[in-house]
Fold this sequence. Notes:
The structure holds 2 protein chains of 2 kinds. Chain A is of the alpha+beta class. Chain A contains 3 helices and 5 strands; from the N terminus they run H-H-E-E-E-E-E-H. In chain A, helix 1 packs across helix 2. The mean pLDDT of chain A is 95. Chain B is α+β, with helices and mostly antiparallel strands. In chain B, the strands form 2 sheets. Chain B has a 3-stranded antiparallel sheet with strand order 2-3-6. The interface between A and B is large, with 48 and 50 residues. Chain B: GO terms for molecular function: DNA binding; structural constituent of chromatin.
Amino acid sequence: MTKSELIQRIAELNPHLYHRDVDRIVSTIFDEIAEALARGDRVELRGFGAFSVKQRDSRIGRNPRTGEAVPVAAKAVPFFKTGKQLRERLNVD
Amino acid sequence: MSGQTLTRADLSEAVYQEVGLSRNESAELVEAVLDEMADALVKGEMVKISSFGTFSVREKGQRIGRNPKTGEEVPILPRRVLVFRASHVLKKRINGE
């Protein structure tokens, strides 16, 4: 499922809304999550999962082709932890 | 550095501010988006959100784990786990680039 398929699906479930508005709604949701993470905040969506940002220290990396040591700067990486309910739904037999 | 936690209520509020819907309907739409994504993932589908990231389901085989408290060996049954891979755009945004 792509973002446009998701928008299409939500539009089908809400025939009273303009497609353009559904597009804005879906975009706003992901934009809001991204913006929160950029501020270093957490986003917790019970049942679905939680997004957070983890800090990685700078380190000495290595170019795997040449073996040459290269400095890798400290960085922040996004992290997602699946919510309990969704994790259980993925494993119902 | 991490201070606040955003929840569904914050997402609904953002939708409410962005589109002229009621607060109630904004909340329902946030829920609908999460539900549709979850349903697709449960079906084993990938969910690809451009500029944000990709959620995919990975099948894990059985392995032998250990109870860290007792040291006892216990089988970890085969299961499906959800993996999120952030897009380059999101990674850059988080690093203020």
